[in-house]
Design a protein that fits this description.
Layout: H1 3-21, H2 26-39, H3 45-50, H4 54-72, H5 75-87, H6 91-108, H7 111-129, H8 134-148, H9 156-165, H10 169-195, H11 203-210, H12 221-239, H13 241-244, H14 248-262, H15 267-271, H16 276-294, H17 297-308, H18 313-330, H19 333-349, H20 356-368, H21 377-388, H22 395-422
Helix pairs in contact: 1-2, 1-16, 2-16, 4-9, 4-14, 4-16, 5-6, 5-7, 6-7, 6-8, 6-10, 7-8, 7-21, 8-10, 8-21, 9-19, 9-20, 10-22, 12-14, 16-19, 17-19, 18-19, 18-20, 18-22, 19-20, 20-22
């Protein structure tokens, strides 16, 4: 290895470790690491900045604006109230309904945005039912990672993979939604088995919760109608982005801009809700990864993996699935995916021209995050929100329930990949 390769690898490993232990803000760590890659001369500034995938950045920004405007209308609170009514106050049934709602929303928005909107609702409903919100929060965060796996825009790893591999919205739906549905059904059964004896609510508490009127949830009905129509058109445009000749980022930004115009929102107000910290985390991450790609570190790792699997695409695919799942359980799945993408590129260029490798990476990175509390950004967000509300989710408690979800989902994914692509 050259001196630049050692420097790039050292910066990457240290930054990765600091992100994993989560003692310092991950955005600052990523940006500092990225700037060190440039300052040390591993990459020139222009080369580093060209590595930033603007398709990912602008897609996330557009969806964040759309989600924040929809949230202001009270739509998500309305969904929660209707979920309570549909469950008739039965706590286990309510948990499964809220998990289903979370999974569906996570497929249409990104899962971090979804849990940010759903978690406060769960905390409010749990207080009204006088039960612990932890089973509801755990079920919802598991569901967000499962549901987000189904589409291009549902989970940040998929956004990264879609942009890098040139895969469109419908390709994700066609290839991943079938297995996600199976995984979710099994997950729902596991949640029922684990929590059916823990959640008991007196009849008088059920009646109290059911008294809440739906009309009080909607804060701005005209804006609600406008935002839902524009969001629906945006999703349809994602589906047909190929024939339209437009990238998902362009569609997301167009939808966000049209919504701001139609709703007569000040850009300053709408853009205030964008999670700029997340976007700059991606900026730093892209540069960090480019450092180890440009110096040949990733190529050497990919060649070693190809040699270890003897060029067998079946072995490589299943190995990539389980390795990605395990790695994503230890560190956040976003930096892992950014690192793994060049490896998959190298494998496909080396003769393993099978789309199963990309779907294995997606399934492993997205579903693997359910094993530990640090495995996905949505997990960390929910844990922090629960702690602020006075409910601590420990690493061991999350692992206790996450292990069953993790093992079942990755096992199902293994069978699915083999049957559909490898047999």
């Amino acid at each position: 290895m050259t001196t630049d390769a050692w420097i790039a690898a050292a910066i990457f490993v240290v930054a990765y470790a600091l992100i994993a232990i989560d003692r310092w803000d991950r955005t600052l760590v990523a940006l500092l690491g990225a700037m060190l890659v440039i300052v040390t001369g591993v990459l020139g500034q222009l080369e580093a900045f060209r590595a930033i995938d603007l398709n990912v950045i602008f897609l996330l920004a557009g969806m964040m604006v759309l989600a924040s405007v929809i949230a202001k209308t009270g739509f998500f609170e309305l969904v929660a109230i209707r979920s309570v009514r549909l469950s008739r106050g039965e706590p286990v049934r309510l948990m499964l309904i809220l998990a289903t709602v979370t999974a569906v929303l996570s497929a249409l928005l990104d899962n971090v945005t979804t849990v940010v909107l759903i978690a406060p609702i769960i905390l409010s409903v749990a207080r009204r039912l006088d039960v612990s919100p932890l089973p509801y929060l755990l079920a919802s965060v598991f569901a967000s990672n499962i549901g987000g796996t189904a589409t291009l825009i549902g989970d940040p790893p998929n956004i990264l993979i879609g942009s890098a591999a040139g895969l469109g919205f419908m390709e994700f739906v066609w290839n991943l939604t079938p297995v996600v549905v199976i995984v979710f059904i099994v997950f729902a059964g596991i949640m029922w088995l684990l929590f059916r004896h823990e959640l008991k609510v007196p009849d008088e508490r059920k009646e109290f919760v059911l008294e809440r009127a739906e009309g009080t949830a909607v804060k701005d009905r005209p804006l609600l109608v406008k935002s839902l129509v524009i969001a629906a058109v945006t999703i349809v445009a994602f589906i047909f982005h190929g024939p339209l000749g437009l990238e998902p980022a362009t569609i997301a930004l167009l939808g966000a801009t049209v919504l701001m115009l139609v709703a007569r929102l000040e850009p300053r107000e709408a853009l205030h809700e964008v999670e700029w910290s997340t976007l700059f985390f991606f900026v730093g991450l892209f540069i960090l990864v480019e450092g180890i790609v440009a110096t040949g570190t990733v190529a050497r790792f990919a060649d070693a993996l190809a040699e270890a699997t003897a060029g067998n695409v079946t072995v490589a695919t299943i190995a990539l699935l389980w390795f990605s799942a395990g790695a994503s359980a230890v560190v956040d799945n976003i930096p892992y995916t950014a690192t793994a993408i060049p490896v998959v590129h190298r494998l496909t260029q080396g003769g393993m021209n099978n789309d199963a490798l990309w779907w294995a990476l997606s399934l492993g990175a997205c579903l693997g995050g359910n094993l530990t509390i640090i495995g996905a950004s949505a997990n960390v967000v929910v844990a922090n929100m629960a702690a602020r509300a006075g409910y601590r989710i420990s690493f061991a408690q999350f692992f206790k329930y996450g292990a069953a979800v993790f093992l079942s989902s990755i096992a199902i994914s293994s069978v699915y990949l083999w049957v559909r692509y490898l047999a």
